[in-house]
Amino acid sequence: RLDSGDREASYRHLNTVDLGPEIQRFDRAVDVVAHELQMAAQEIANRSGLTGEAAEALQAHITLVRDPELRGRVVSLMRSQGINASWAVDQVLDQVGQEFHNAGVPYLAERQVDIVQVGRRLVAQLERRSVPPMESEDFESMIVVADDLGPHQALELLDQGITAIVVQSGSPTSHLALLCRAFDCPALMGVDGALSLLADGDDLLLDLDRSLLVRNPESTDLEPLQPRQGFRYLGGEAPQSLCGEAITLLANVDVRQALDLAEAQGAQGVGLFRSEFLWRDGKEPSEGLQCETY
């Protein structure tokens, strides 16, 4: 079981004279957190064979932490209520998260997890708390159970070759799920009560087909299951529906390396070319770069 770090902000009332330095302290914390995430994103960019989904997860957090509207709301609350930065960040991110949840759009509701993760890092920086270290002698035989994992924490674990991840938060379309998919790491998202029901040292069985988690499985639980197998292209026949209608198989491509994988799995073309990675450094790419990439 892994403690992801909590977002406990302290409250302090500030007079007008102290507000200016506190706002500057908030801006410095934003710079530090954004820099840490940018360094992690650069690490990913330097790795071969890793899809753009992993870097995209970190980039979403960088965009959020540097969002001028977020800064405006935090600073406005600090001035109107005379409060310290970490308390204002905590209050504003709670409000934003609730707005996302109430939007009625599943994608926005799922991004509430990103709000919590960014808030946790900002508050920890402002409160001078470090993110808990992850230590183990044998990551490769470990299944990590946590409330949630930010991209930076997840990358540390995935780099060590852990067996699987189980989290109480998130969904199959969350950024953590994208990272696990990029590393081909089995994962179950949204397992309510996992931290309270499971203990360190438990043996766990993950049935991904049925989204099932079994604690300390017996031999009868294991018999009907086969080891996890990745999808593979059968080849030889054009894809079609059960009723015999032909299906054109098109790939979702984000980086050049994905083309080889798409071709190997029988893709007949590119259905969606995701070019947003060209804007990851916050600058508009040149026309020449876009032409070369396309």
Describe the structure.
With 294 residues, the chain is mostly helical. The protein is built from twelve helices and seven strands. The strands form three sheets. The protein has a three-stranded parallel β-sheet, covered by helices on one side. Strands 4-5 form a two-stranded antiparallel sheet. The protein has a two-stranded parallel sheet with strand order 6-7. The longest helix has 30 residues. It is globular, with a radius of gyration of 22 Å.
Number of helices: 12
What characteristic shape results from the CA principal axes? globular
- Rg over CA atoms, rounded to whole Å, is 22 Å
End-to-end C-alpha gap: 44 Å
**What spatial order of strands do you see in the largest sheet?**
1-2-3
Order of helices and strands: HHHHHHEHEHEHEEHEHEH
Low-confidence stretches: none
Average pLDDT rating:
78
Alpha-beta classification: mainly alpha
- Number-wise, the strands total 7
Largest sheet: 3 strands, parallel
- Fraction of helical residues: 40-55%
What percent strand?
5-15%
